[in-house]
Amino acid sequence: MAKTNTVLIVGAGPVGAVLAYALRAQDIPVTMIEALASPEIDCRAASCHPPTVAMLDELGLLEDGLEQGLVSPVFHYIDRVTGELVGRFDIGAMAEPPKHPYVLQWEQYKIVLTVLDRLKDDAGFDLRMSTRLTGIQQNDEGVIATVETAEGESVSIDGRFLVGCDGGRSTVRKLLDIEFEGFTWPERFIKIDTRYDFTNLSEAITNRNYFSDPNQWMNLFKARGEDGSGMWRSVSPTLPEQSETELTSAEAVEARLQKFCPSDTPYDIVNVALYHVHQRVAATFNQGRVLLAGDAAHVNNPVGGMGMNGGIHDAVNLAEKIACIWSDGVDYQPLFNRYTRQRRKGQIDYVQAQSIRNKETLGETDPAKRAEKLAAIRRQAETQVEHDAFIRRACMIDSLNDANATL
Ligand SMILES: Cc1cc2nc3c(=O)[nH]c(=O)nc-3n(C[C@H](O)[C@H](O)[C@H](O)COP(=O)(O)OP(=O)(O)OC[C@H]3O[C@@H](n4cnc5c(N)ncnc54)[C@H](O)[C@@H]3O)c2cc1C
Q1: Does residue 271 come out as left (phi exceeding 0), alpha (psi in the -120 to 50 range) or beta?
Q2: N or C: which end of the chain has fewer CB within 10 A?
Q3: Does residue 150's CB lie within 6 angstroms of at least one atom of ligand 1?
Q4: Other beta carbons less than 10 A from residue 10's beta carbon
Q5: FAD-binding domain: from which residue to which, for each copy (predicted)?
Q6: Is 299 in the pocket of ligand 1 (CB under 6 A)?
Q7: Is the CB of 14 inside a 6 Å radius of any atom of ligand 1?
Q8: Whether residue 344 has pLDDT greater than 60
């Protein structure tokens, strides 16, 4: 094989971008392949939990994050039926708060644009936009990726390793025939971005809110938005039998928000998207010299904002392992096997379990069980030990610690 001195990263989403940045910080050459002509201005993830903030800090990206994002130390659980603030969780009020005692609301597209801007003049970073991965071959020396360029040409690119950061429908995972184990929820979730300031609704509203409702729960978060004036993002479930047009028409979106928060003037809607929601984890995150990270390796429902965070934890973990192999000539197989063990454990034991629990708590329809779940949140918010334990689970502190402790 002619050239084995680069890591191929497929996908310039937030996970691929952070992986590229972490590898370049170790002076490891990176070739990044992205199917789109320019990075997607993607309005999905915005919440970066405290362990992720610490990683962004280590990488030297936090200053940009603080400039472009919103610092949110507190999150609220609210009963949408009665309007009661059921639980207030304050990361800064933990007995032993993390180094960065807040969630940073930093939109995922801003993370990507920041990284690509930082790397634009870096000779060790080769970014190929409008380039789609279509095939992979690997041998003892390295990996050969087959890609299709914007001109429709089929080209080969060599690398020592290849990491699929190509999202939930990962071509890399499919080419490797790796099972994506789990299930898909029957209902889709609708996400609506609006400039309307929801603090008008009630004093219980903070930057991050979870509304419990047996009929229509809701997640409501504030991000800084493009011009810094604030963008509110709601996520709520839809009925499986409703069509996309029925759900996403201007009238339907307006009616949904008016029902949630009546307003005299029409809502200023910026973006609407409908998502199928999955809970799936790849059977393995490594096969020979090829690895999976981020949504390519695991997907979960967005209640709790854990998908991108888990992907960034993958990226940082993997960059450390690749750096060991790169400089010391260590055998890659045991380290990559350990990457799978650590990151699959974090996913299965924590992220999958917690995101399912989050969704079920908000949407509980049985009155007795709902009362029980809300009482549990009330109790956990009011007792220091339980409050702190709740935050450690919700903010992915436990998941990261436990994954990292796995041999
Ligand atoms: C409504 C909603 C809200 C969310 N909120 C949060 C949150 O607050 N916090 C959180 O942690 N997570 C959140 N998530 C999840 C988060 O958006 C994802 O986990 C995250 O985008 C995964 O990043 P990624 O880089 O792995 O994949 P992606 O962002 O999907 O990026 C994959 C990239 O690969 C490219 N690609 C795909 N196939 C190919 C190919 N064959 N060749 C070349 N390139 C290819 C794509 O074009 C894309 O650019 C949310 C999700 C939803 C739906």
Answers
A1: beta
A2: C
A3: no
A4: 28
A5: 6-345
A6: no
A7: yes
A8: yes
Number of H-type helices and E-type strands within the chain:
13, 22
Q: Give kind and range of the element (H or E) at residue 330.
A: none
The tokens for 204 are: 């219980």
Read off the pLDDT of each residue in 224-249 and give the average, rounded to a whole number. Answer: 94
pLDDT one-digit tens code per residue, 142-158: 999 999 999 999 999 99
E strands, 229-301, in order: 231-237, 269-275, 278-282, 286-287, 290-292, 298-299
pLDDT tops 80 at residue 99: yes
Q: What residue ranges do the domains of the chain occupy?
A: 7-73+102-184+279-363+396-405
Confidence of residue 202 (pLDDT cuts 50, 70, 90): confident
Q: CB–CB of 307/47 below 8 Å?
A: no
Q: What is the pLDDT of residue 1?
A: 39
| Positive/negative CA dihedral, 308, 312, 313, 314 | positive
CATH tag for 7-73+102-184+279-363+396-405 (out of 3.40.50.740, 3.30.499.10, 3.40.50.2300, 3.50.50.60):
3.50.50.60
Q: Within 10 A of 127 (CB to CB), how many other CB atoms are there? A: 18
Whether residue 396 contacts residue 52, with contact meaning beta carbons closer than 8 Å, is answered with yes
The pLDDT assigned to 64 comes to 98
Mean pLDDT calculated for residue range 349-378? 96
Q: Nearest-CA neighbor of 353 among 392, 393, 319?
A: 393
- Rounded distance from Cα 345 to ligand 1 centre (Å): 21
Phi first, then psi, for residue 366 (nearest 5°) are -75, 120
Q: How far is the CA of 13 from the centre of ligand 1 (A)?
A: 6
Give the ligand 1 atom nearest the CA of 33: 43
Ligand 1 center to 42 CA (angstroms): 8
Question: Tokens 């059921």 appear where?
Answer: 86
